[in-house]
């Protein structure tokens, strides 16, 4: 049996994992409120109290959306006393952007 066949299977598994990861990312981003949160965080680090007031949503709902964004690691949090501050994780956003470009046939910029 040749090694090229085994390498082919390894590449397919890697592509499936990348597709799964990208699919999960896109599902989380498909929510309008999560996109609005990301848009707010583009301006810099914010605490949840500023986010829910800016979006006129309940704190519980914003916390739920923040937890979904944390699951896919595109936001990071920092605790300062009783407050938790959130910011975009630009490295992981870049990673998902590369996965997306690779999937649609664009050039991988790595």
Write a compact overview of the structure shown.
By secondary structure, this protein is α+β, with helices and mostly antiparallel strands.
CATH class: Mainly Alpha
Helical amount: 55-70%
State which percent range the strand residues make up.
Answer: 5-15%
CATH fold description: Arc Repressor Mutant, subunit A
Low-confidence stretches are: none
Number of domains: 1
Secondary structure elements and pairings:
Elements: H1 3-29, H2 32-41, E1 46-47, H3 48-55, H4 59-71, E2 75-80, E3 83-88, H5 90-103
Characterise the protein shown here.
- The chain is an alpha+beta fold and 110 residues long.
- The chain has one domain: Orthogonal Bundle (Arc Repressor Mutant, subunit A).
- It contains five helices and three strands; from the N terminus they run ααβααββα.
- Strands 1-3-2 form a three-stranded antiparallel beta sheet.
- A hairpin with a 2-residue loop joins strand 2 (75-80) and strand 3 (83-88).
- Helix 3 packs across helix 4.
- The longest helix is centred in the N-terminal third of the chain and has 27 residues, at 3-29.
- The protein is elongated.
- The two termini are 33 Å apart.
Features:
110 residues; Arc Repressor Mutant, subunit A; 3 strands; 13% strand; elongated
């Amino acid at each position: 049996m040749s090694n090229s066949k085994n390498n082919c299977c390894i590449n397919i598994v890697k592509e499936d994992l990348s597709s799964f990861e990208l699919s999960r990312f896109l599902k989380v981003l498909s929510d309008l409120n999560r996109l609005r949160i990301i848009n707010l965080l583009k301006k810099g680090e914010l605490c949840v109290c500023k986010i829910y007031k800016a979006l006129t949503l309940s704190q519980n709902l914003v916390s739920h959306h923040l937890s979904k964004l944390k699951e896919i690691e595109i936001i990071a949090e920092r605790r300062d006393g009783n407050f938790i501050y959130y910011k975009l994780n630009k490295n992981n956003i870049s990673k998902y952007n590369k996965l997306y470009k690779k999937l649609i046939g664009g050039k991988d910029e790595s």
